Amino acid sequence: MSHSLNEVEATAKRAARGAGFCWGLAEEAGKAARWLCANGLDGCGVLARLLDDLAGEPLSARSPMSLDGDWAGPSGRLCPLMAGATLSDCASRLNDGDIIMSGVMHPALILPFAASAAQQSRKEVTVSWDGLTAMTNSSGVCLVDAASALTSPYAAQVRVRAGGTADPVTSHVTRATPDGEHWATLNRFAHRTYAPATEASRMLGAGAGLSDND
Length: 214
Known about the structure:
Elements: E1 3-4, H1 5-18, H2 23-38, H3 43-54, H4 80-89, E2 99-105, H5 111-121, E3 125-129, E4 132-136, E5 141-144, E6 154-162, E7 175-176, H6 180-190, H7 199-204
Antiparallel strand pairs: 1-7, 2-6, 3-4, 3-6, 4-5
Helix pairs in contact: 1-2, 1-3, 1-6, 2-3, 3-6, 4-5
């Protein structure tokens, strides 16, 4: 089944919130999933797998401890949403040299944030891991070599640098066709954000409640 990009973003946002992210990072997750899907990549799948893998561990254990030197998390693994949001916030650091991230989970989720950094700096940004090179700009992403690494659940090192030639970029699409299992996973996390029904909410919902005007 296909879904609009608006639906992808809304579902991904709620799923990330249900997985324990604050609303701000949940919004970033929604935008990241949408960006990947818009560029013909499996944004729903990679986010669903990340949320499953993060379950049960404090998110603070997988955020960068320091921006000096290589970025690494206390647990030895970095959440790409937290590392990616930091990259977007610190895009100007790319002017001083490469940014190296160690132990990145589901590194494909770094790409939307690299594109944001490219837009801010008005120049291409190149991301590489496990033999894959992805060059991004404000229009999209150009993949070079080892595209299979896009589905990698872990990368020992992700290198982000200023420069590259993001041409041609991937074709943009307006709808996504996620795997049914991955879509169900996102909805499972999203449902955690819904308030349970109460007697009062049922009375205010659809239907006549205890009154009958017929």
